[in-house]
């Protein structure tokens, strides 16, 4: 691509609740605010449409992409305002389980790309919280790159950020901007969120854009917030709080080439074998 490819990107912090209609009224004004601030690419967090801990209630409200009121509203915004809206994820029915699916909506309002979260969050935290995404969701099987007007965007969702090989594969395939919209718990977010996002940006020489859920939700969960935009050198260009809001930053893809030229680690990736050795036991003293 020739010429200046710079653009303004936005990440929206949400506090999504249990009611789809209320969530439309929550997210649309924030996306509109991001566009008013000059954003041509707007990213929302994981679970933009609905956050509901009770599985029966969740399943009763979830349908297909076409049924989702929040997705429909954001498609309308993208079409009216001629921008790209990256819905960090929504839950959609796929047989007996759901998919945790990111949607990239183009300026024509059409869904240009889909990505189903590959790595599912099945953990028991020291605080006593237990999460089993695999009980409700089916994991995705395919990493996804999207050709944007300014270059290639690599898609991921939340817990994926703990698996560096996914981002290395995306960057090696040409991604200049990586994404990790999330719904991080407050406990893990305070400990790891910023470190993980900056690490994925640094090790791949790529921008990282990560919109997040923040605060205490209607279903009782507490999320960390702190949407972030990080440059390829690991500098935080913009960071939010746990409160709903918008952050923006200018993304200059030419910086990617400059950083990768300084530290060409993508070019130095090598295949290797894994060996094992054993230390002999010490002789007992006589």
List the helices and strands and how they pair.
Blueprint: E1 7-13, H1 20-36, E2 41-43, H2 55-61, H3 69-81, E3 84-94, E4 97-105, E5 111-116, E6 122-124, E7 130-132, E8 145-148, E9 151-154, H4 164-172, E10 175-179, H5 186-204, E11 207-210, E12 214-216, E13 222-224, E14 228-230, E15 236-239, E16 245-251, H6 254-262
Parallel strand pairs: 1-2, 2-3, 9-10, 10-11
Antiparallel strand pairs: 1-16, 3-4, 4-5, 6-7, 8-9, 11-14, 12-13, 14-15
In brief:
By secondary structure, the chain is of the alpha/beta class. It is 26% helix and 28% strand. The protein contains six helices and 16 strands.
Q: How does this model look, in words?
A:
The longest helix is centred in the last third of the chain and has 19 residues, at 186-204. This protein has 6 helices and 16 strands. It starts with 6 loop residues before the first strand and ends in a 24-residue tail after the last helix. Helix content is 26%, strand content 28%. The model has no long low-confidence stretch (mean pLDDT 94). It is an alpha/beta fold and 286 residues long. The strands form 4 sheets. A 6-stranded mixed β-sheet has the order 5-4-3-2-1-16. It is globular, with a radius of gyration of 20 Å. The protein has helices at residues 20-36, 55-61, 69-81, 164-172, 186-204, 254-262; strands at 7-13, 41-43, 84-94, 97-105, 111-116, 122-124, 130-132, 145-148, 151-154, 175-179, 207-210, 214-216, 222-224, 228-230, 236-239, 245-251.
Mean pLDDT across every amino acid position: 94
Order of helices and strands: EHEHHEEEEEEEHEHEEEEEEH
* Structural category: alpha/beta
* Estimated share of beta-strand residues: 25-35%
Query: What summary fits the major beta sheet?
Result: 6 strands, mixed
Low-confidence stretches: none
Determine the N-to-C terminus distance.
Answer: 75 Å
Number of distinct helices: 6
In spatial order, strands of the major sheet run 5-4-3-2-1-16
Shape: globular
- Give Rg in angstroms: 20 Å
């Amino acid at each position: 691509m020739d010429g200046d490819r710079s653009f303004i990107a936005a990440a929206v912090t949400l506090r999504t609740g249990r009611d789809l209609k209320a969530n439309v009224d929550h997210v649309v004004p924030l996306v509109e605010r991001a566009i008013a601030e000059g954003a041509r690419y707007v990213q929302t967090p994981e679970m933009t449409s609905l956050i509901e801990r009770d599985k029966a209630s969740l399943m009763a409200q979830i349908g297909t992409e076409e049924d989702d009121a929040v997705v429909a509203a954001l498609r309308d915004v993208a079409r009216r305002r001629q921008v790209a809206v990256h819905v960090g994820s929504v839950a959609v029915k796929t047989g007996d389980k759901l998919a945790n699916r990111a949607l990239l909506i183009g300026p024509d309002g059409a869904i240009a790309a889909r990505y189903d979260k590959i790595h599912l969050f099945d953990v028991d935290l020291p605080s006593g919280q237990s999460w089993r995404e695999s009980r409700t969701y089916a994991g995705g099987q395919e990493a996804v790159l999207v050709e944007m007007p300014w270059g290639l965007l690599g898609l991921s969702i939340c817990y994926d950020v703990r698996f560096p090989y996914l981002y290395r594969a995306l960057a090696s395939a040409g991604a200049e901007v990586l994404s990790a919209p999330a719904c991080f718990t407050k406990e893990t977010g305070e400990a790891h969120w910023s470190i993980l996002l900056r690490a994925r940006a640094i090790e791949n020489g790529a921008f990282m854009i990560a919109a997040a859920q923040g605060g205490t939700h209607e279903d009782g969960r507490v999320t960390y917030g702190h949407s972030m935009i990080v440059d390829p050198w690991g500098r935080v260009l913009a960071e939010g709080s746990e409160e709903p809001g918008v952050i923006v930053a200018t993304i200059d893809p030419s910086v990617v080439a400059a950083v990768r030229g300084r530290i060409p680690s993508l070019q130095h990736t090598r295949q290797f074998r894994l060996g094992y050795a054993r230390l002999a036991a010490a002789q007992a003293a006589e």
